[in-house]
Structure formats: structure tokens, C-alpha cells
Specification:
With 288 residues, the protein is mainly alpha-helical. It contains 13 helices and no strands. The chain starts with 21 loop residues before the first helix and ends in a 13-residue tail after the last helix.
Length: 288
Amino acid sequence: MIKKTTSPPVSSGDCCIYRVSQSLRKGNEFAYTPQIVSIGPLHHRDEHLKRMKEVKVRYLEQFLRHAADTANFSKFPDCGDQKARQMWQCVDDPIRNNFSCLDEFLGILQSSEQKIRQSYAEDLSYLTSEELLKIILVDAALIIELFLRFYFGSIRDTILSTTYVAVCVRIDLWLLENQVPFFVLEDLYNAAFGSHGMTIYPSFLNLACKFFRVYDKQNWEIERKVKHFTDLRRTSLLPIPEAEEKRSNAEDQKQPSDERGPLKELLKSATQLHAAGVKFRENKSSNC
């Protein structure tokens, strides 16, 4: 019989996933509640999200198969990358019961269980170790598998093939209450795909940014350590780091004056604006 685990005291450095306060929820409950898929323990038991259970199980099976296949492909440096790329184009192939990586992934989660529990402000002692790690593994596998299918342009994907579902899932993954710690995703991803020396797999951070289209909003790469996807969203909206801004300005200074990046494309001279049809009027109220 598995006993329930008592959550250790939450330390301010680890805790990063909270429930939204009731005062905020009263304004718009819908905005803070996942509508398609639950991620992590906080909404795991919500009835309206249980219809995704079968999809999660299927994604977990595919994740385990793809991880095992990637490990095998890495043994062939001349063609491993090509084989892996082809694998991601055929994600709807019949499932083979190749779960050789399962014990390794469970071991990774078991070694991090205390840190995982400390990441949540809510006391998770109502979940046994087995229950919590199962939730985290299944949901992490869904995320990693989904991100890789998106990255490689896999066709006939259960989620990505329907625009409405894809958009709703992306929104659900932003929500603060609907998170697993980022370090868990990175650890599992690196064990499954990032540690074999294959060139086709980006870092998990870059993979996540591609899925959420973070780089569509900025032209610098995120180098800060993020805690989860909500924090990734917040980080993407922060001002450009000073060091990055100085580097960018230095590069612009080295370029000819007519090639100084996107800012110049936005700043037109009065002559160009007039030629484009913009009309100017004297500001009679100004003393200038």
C-alpha cells in the first residue's frame, strides 16, 4: 500500500505555480481555467477536461517510442538525423510497445519529486508519489511530443490538425494554474532527445519559443532561466536586456546607414511621408 506523501515546507525560491486568487477569478473565471487540456495536478480532476485522457495516453506511448527510436538512430551518425526527421513525418504509425525508456524517465522524476512538490504553492500531500509522478510524466510527454510534432511539421496530428483545438491548447498552456515546472520538461526532453548528439533537435527552450511564436514578437533570444510557460510569456514581454541592446546597437553602427535594422524601416523622412500621401499642417498653437 502506497502512503500519501507529506509535502515539505515550501521555500520561496522553488515555489512558482499558484492558484489565481478568488478576487481575480470573480472578474472572469473563464480566463484562468483551462478549457481543453489539464497540465499538472491542480486541474487534473476537472470533469470537463477528462475527455483528453485518451489523447494523453496515446501521446505518452508515441513519446516513449520516439525516444527509444531516437536513441537507436543516434548509433548511426551518417544517417541518424535523416531517420529521425522521417520518423516525425509519420507520427500516426501503429504503436509498437517499445517502452524501454520508461524506467529512466520515472527515475528522473523520482529524483526530483521533492523539488516538484515545492514548485506548487498548494499542498499536494493528497497525492501519493505514484499519482503525482504519473500526472507529471503523462502531461510532460504530451507537451514534448506536441512541440516536436509542431516543430517538424507533422501531419494528421490529433491536436494540430484542428485550428480551434490548437489555439485553445496553446492558450491553456499559458495559464498559471496549468503548469508543470520548466526544469522537469527540460530534464525529460534532454534525456529523450537532447543527449544523443543529434543536430536536428533544438534546445527545449527554443522548441517552446517556436511553439508559442515568442520570437515573432522580438528579435533577441531569451537567455533568462524560466520557471514555466507563464513565466516564459512574461519574460518574452520584458525589455531587451541591456547587454543585448548594446550589442545590437554596436552591430547597427558597423552597418552602412541605409542598413541599420528594422527601426530604420519604421522611421521615414518628411519627404518620404509626403510622397506617400501624408498631409502636413502647421501647428499654430505651438510657440516653436
